[in-house]
Amino acid sequence: MKTPSGRTLLCMLCVFSLSLYLCMFIGSDSDYTNRHLFSIIFGTNAKSLRPLIDDNKTKIESIKKETHTIEPTCIPRNNIVFLKTRKAGGTTLQNIFCRYGDRNNLTFVLPHQGWILGYPYAFQKKFAISPPPSGYNIFCHEAVFNNDVITDMMPKNTVYITILREPLSHYESTFTYFEIGKTCGIRSYSANSLDEFFNSPSECYKKTPRNHMLLNLGATYMSFDDDRAIEMTIEHLEDKFDLVMIMEHFEESLILLKDLLCWTTDDITYFELNRRETQSVHKLSDTLKNKIRQWNKGDVALFQHFNKTFWGKVRNFGEKKMRIEIENLKIKI
Ligand SMILES: *[C@@H]1O[C@H](CO)[C@@H](O)[C@H](O)[C@H]1NC(C)=O
Ligand SMILES: *[C@@H]1O[C@H](CO)[C@@H](O)[C@H](O)[C@H]1NC(C)=O
Ligand SMILES: *[C@@H]1O[C@H](CO)[C@@H](O)[C@H](O)[C@H]1NC(C)=O
User: Fold this and answer.
1) Ligand 3 contacts CB of residue 250 (under 6 A)
2) Nearest partner of 171 among 282, 311, 285, 307, judged by Cα
3) Can you name the residues that pair with 243 across neighbouring β-strands?
4) Cβ atoms < 10 Å from Cβ of 145
5) Which of 23, 90, 113, 133 is the most buried (most CB within 10 A)?
6) Is it true that the peptide bond before 111 is cis, omega within 30 degrees of 0?
């Protein structure tokens, strides 16, 4: 066996001192030392390891940060029934739902033609184009609510939403829009035709409905003189609808909608559509107002109930938070 030559010995000494040198740095956690160690032990290839480790570290940290700040407290709701009551500011909302559905490739319940799903008849499946295998997502075209049929055709986790308007102005608007005066052979101009209609009521009462909002929400004509029936209808609607918005409190309504659906402010920014000139709205005498309220007492009860629950929801949401959200909304519109 050959004894190690001087050269080999020198080499071994080199390796030894190198390991000693390396050992001195082990345990140190300084960045520089670690990098130095790596490049010495693993050669130049080690350089590519370091950024990888760094990347993973920052990636993990950024994931941690994200989940911390964007708490996944809610998932946007895509299955929606918006029962658009007529003459109650629903066109603006319909526009919001249409835009959202379009952007998110959702499936609408659509009429075979036009915009109306059989109104004024209670909704039937045959009024709509058949759904694709994935089913429907959004129901937002004009219809008379038919609970059993609609519940059956929409997904289980559907959110139900509608909007109401203060009954006096709603009736006045409906009266003009449906030309009820004309239907009843009243020739005076709009400002007086309501007066005339309520002066000689009995004849024309048979030709024109009352409580348009209740009818729109699926109540039947039979029940309007029965306070208990009206009450029960309201209770059913309370159970069914997750949110009943109020046209007169439109901004608060939009914020509650956004909160319920887990949408963004951009999702609910809107343009006012279909709004009448203010001067065409009639000035009503107190006597006439009372007659209209009496005539539509189902709608009055409906509105009172849901305006009350609406403000309860605003309180639960937080009044201060509501003010801030409305400010944010106003900046966008
Ligand atoms: C970085 O993370 C990925 C998984 O996210 C893993 O497969 C890979 O081995 C990690 N690399 C290092 C150098 O730790
Ligand atoms: C909707 O569909 C279009 C075309 O198929 C696609 O490019 C787009 O990414 C989809 N958008 C969403 C939000 O799924
Ligand atoms: C709804 O109720 C609130 C609180 O009671 C009231 O201030 C508001 O005037 C009501 N809205 C309408 C349109 O009557």
Assistant:
1) no
2) 282
3) 161
4) 22
5) 90
6) no
